[in-house]
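2024-03-11 09:14:02 DEBUG pipeline.ingest accepted 1 chain
2024-03-11 09:14:02 DEBUG pipeline.ingest length=171
2024-03-11 09:14:03 DEBUG pipeline.predict start
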Amino acid sequence: VEVNKMLPERKIHFEAKKKEKENLRFRSFLKCNADEEELDQQFLQLHKELFENFDCGRCRNCCKEYCAELTTDEVKEVAEYLKMEEPQFVQTYLEKDETEGTYLTKNKPCDFLQKNGECLLEECKPDGCKKYPYTDQPGRLGSLYGMLDAIAVCPVAYEIWERLKKIYNFH
């Protein structure tokens, strides 16, 4: 499947919803049958292959569906990047997540998503934004529930999941 043959971003949520039960069964199948290191390698290979020609800037579903999460250090960096005083930056854009000790943007779509579809923080994005959908990160077997969220938002994550079903001959 070519990258441009992937589902369009506007259809991802609908298609993932249709496959919700199947995707839960596949998650359980992987939990019981996949080798952790091999699965990480499969995710990584598919991630590299599919993101190579995918323009996230044309989609931005993640920016529309999630709030950005910033660590205390990232708050300092981003405030500086935006040439704002830290307290003013926090008051304008963020809410403290007391349970995690981090900050979240106040709104969805993300407060940094501009009308032209670009991120205001492009050069200074928080780590969580840079790494999303985490398909190139180790420990995928332990975060398969998170993948179920990602496949309803990200066309590449959806395609990775579908290709993994083929690799594992899952029906």
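2024-03-11 09:14:41 DEBUG pipeline.report Residues 61 and 154 are 6 Å apart (CA to CA).
2024-03-11 09:14:41 DEBUG pipeline.predict end
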